[in-house]
């Protein structure tokens, strides 16, 4: 297989630098997956592939490292907000940087920093309220003016209502 020599070399480099434990410690300290892959000399895709196809212990260690990284990001966003800023531009930029780090912390540790999933997305739906709202929207904006005899004029849109003395039209049968 043509990819095997590179793979063996990358795995040997991981072993030489302290193994997966050292890699995950660097991750927990704030190193991104891309930086860690660059240190080993492999692509980020290969690096993630190796970690995703690892043992259950490795996956648990990765989850723990991601949680530590999320806490690191949250602390970093707090430091950004606490820094002294003098201009409005610096404040806006700090706000964006802190918000992005909070979002990333929520991605890496949903339970602690992410949006809660048990809250409903919107208010409960009421069919009755929707029906009333539709009737209000369909109602004419103003009442028609009455004729001389006191009966209201017919509306130009909508179904016609038969007059008092008039019989409704019978259905046409074929």
Strand content: under 5%
Number of strands: 0
The N- and C-terminal alpha carbons lie at a distance of 80 Å
Largest sheet: none
User: If helices are DSSP runs of H or I spanning 4 or more residues, what is the number of helices?
Assistant: 8
Rg over CA atoms, rounded to whole Å, is 34 Å
Give the topology string: H per helix, E per strand.
HHHHHHHH
List the uncertain runs.
none
**Overall helicity:** 55-70%
**Secondary structural class:** mainly alpha
Mean pLDDT: 77
Outline type: elongated
What does the model show?
This protein has 174 residues and is mostly helical. Among the domains are: 1-54; 56-114, no CATH class. Helices cover 60% and strands 0% of the residues. The chain has eight helices and no strands. It has helices spanning 4-16, 19-28, 33-40, 44-52, 56-82, 88-108, 110-113, 127-138. α2 (19-28) packs parallel to α5, α3 packs across α4 and α5 packs antiparallel against α6 (88-108). The protein starts with a helix and ends in a 36-residue tail after the last helix.
Overview features:
8 helices; mainly alpha; 0% strand; 174 residues
Could you give a quick summary of the protein structure above?
With 174 residues, the protein is mainly α. It has helices spanning 4-16, 19-28, 33-40, 44-52, 56-82, 88-108, 110-113, 127-138. Among the domains are: 1-54; 56-114, no CATH class.
């Amino acid at each position: 297989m043509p990819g095997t020599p590179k793979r063996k070399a990358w795995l040997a480099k991981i072993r030489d630098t302290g193994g997966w434990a050292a890699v995950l410690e660097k991750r927990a300290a704030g190193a991104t997956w891309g930086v860690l892959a660059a240190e080993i000399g492999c692509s980020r895709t290969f690096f993630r592939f190796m970690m995703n196809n690892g043992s259950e212990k490795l996956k648990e260690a990765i989850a723990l490292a991601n949680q530590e990284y999320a806490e690191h990001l949250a602390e970093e966003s707090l430091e950004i907000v606490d820094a002294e800023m003098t201009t409005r531009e610096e404040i806006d930029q700090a706000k964006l940087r802190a918000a992005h780090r909070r979002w990333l912390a929520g991605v890496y540790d949903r339970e602690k920093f992410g949006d809660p999933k048990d809250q409903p997305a919107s208010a409960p739906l009421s069919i009755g309220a929707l029906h009333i709202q539709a009737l209000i929207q369909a109602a004419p904006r103003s009442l028609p003016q009455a004729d001389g005899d006191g009966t209201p004029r017919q509306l130009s849109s909508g179904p016609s209502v038969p007059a008092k003395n008039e019989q409704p039209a019978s259905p046409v049968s074929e």
